[in-house]
Each structure stands twice: as structure tokens, then as C-alpha cells.
């Protein structure tokens, strides 16, 4: 990675490790982040708790792929994974005094009283440094469906689910509990939600995010899927610029080789779009929505 980007941002706070769906240990991720030139790394594994989660199509694939530990049916199950993981991060802080190591969670938000109570209890125990709001799932026809699985459905069902998806992103902003929102046009991963007919949903979503003042990430893992753009792409970023949504860059690294990946490309793209509304690390960490 060149100096250009690191002058702009010396932190990476959306990353995953091998206890969940990443490939490397936390120690390996910290070492590589240092070698790339970052001064701060945040480890933010998936916090996905839903009573139906193991009935999703993707769950079978996650078991076969060895990353099913990212899914929990209840909060005790999630805590049993995160308590030792966070304890290890504490130890790594002592071993790496030159690096700022943050403990994050990439959270799928489900707006039920049971979820809110369980999540509040988990936060009291874990005391995460920051929370990422993500919408990887839509609730549909009595179950939850991952955006991956939407790709195989008929057009009408897909459209209904995409509408729910965009309203879920607005719901994340309105929840007022996340330090930033992740990959807000995630269905793009499967080629969905890109057509012009969705432009109204994009704008409504950006307006809701702007009203909540929640920062969004420019997630460079979008480059991996061959669209030549991050999540979100330039069209949505133009709207985010228009409505003064604070932004910064993430790599969403699941492997040491992905740390800092494509950040120069994304940075150059933002310069071409005239984007300058970047959020500092402090601003992101200090941000708590109005409801907390
Ligand atoms: Zn994600
Ligand atoms: Zn992620």
C-alpha cells in the first residue's frame, strides 16, 4: 500500500479472525497491520444471534466451510465464544504496546425486545470498544434469509426482500447504537440492488443515515467481487457526499493479505468524486447515536 492512503487513515477497524469466519489469528492480524503501516487495528467478529439462524440455507454451507461459529442461536452461546476471544485481545494489548488494539463487534441487529435485552446484557459483559451495524439478513416469510441466498430466488421475491434490506439499513441508522454502518449496499455481492429502480431506496437510506449522523465505511472488499468498486459504489457515495454523511475506509479483512487491500484505489475514487467528509478514528469511536 502506498503512502498516499496511509497519510489519510492509519487505522483499520473492520477485521475478522479464525475463531469466527476469518483465516488468521488475532496475533497474526495485528502483526500484519503493523507491517502494512497501521497504528490501530480493531478486530470485529460477527455477532449474529437469532433463534432461527441455524435454519438458514447458509448455515449448512458455513458448517461445511468451517465458519459456523459466527452464528449463535442465543446470547449465552455467543458470549461463550466472545469472552475467551476478548480475553485474548486483552493479552495482545499488553504484548503489543506500540499498536492500539480495539475490540469491536460486527452486529446483525434484530429489533425484538428479546434481542435488545440479550444484546444489552452481552455488551455489559463484553464491554466492546465499538459496534458495527450490519444487515446480512432479511426476515422474510417467518424465517431469516441471508443476502447470499436472495440470488437464487425469483425476481418478485428478490424485489420484496431488497425492499426489506434497504429498510433494514435505515433501521440500523435509526437504532442509534452503532459507531458506523458496514457495506450498506451488500446485496451487490450477488449482483442485486444495483438497478436504477433502486435509486429512490438508496437516497431514502442515505437521508436516514445522514439524519442519524452515523458514519459509514467505504468497504474495499467490494473490489474482490469484480465490480471494480467498494461497498458502497460511487453512485451511493455521491449521495453520501451530498448529504454530508461521515465516511472512512475499511478492508473487512478475513485474511492477513486483505489488510489495507485496495485502499489506495478506494481513496483515489473518493478524490475523483470530490469526497472530503472523512471521519477521524476518534470521531467514529466517540459516536454514539442519540438513543444510547
Ligand atoms: Zn459484513
Ligand atoms: Zn465484516
Supply database-style keywords:
10 strands, 11 helices, binds zinc ion, 6-stranded parallel β-sheet, 292 residues, globular, two-stranded antiparallel ribbon, alpha/beta
Write a concise synopsis of the structure shown:
The protein has eleven helices and ten strands.
Structure overview:
By secondary structure, the chain is of the alpha/beta class. It has one domain: Metal-dependent hydrolases (TIM Barrel, Alpha-Beta Barrel), CATH 3.20.20. It is 43% helix and 16% strand. Helix 4 (75-95) packs parallel to helix 5 and helix 7 (155-175) runs parallel beside helix 8 (199-212). The protein is globular and about 55 Å long. The strands form three sheets. Strands 1, 2, 3, 4, 5 and 8 form a six-stranded parallel beta sheet that branches. It has eleven helices and ten strands. One zinc ion (ZN) binds at residues 14, 16, 106, 252.
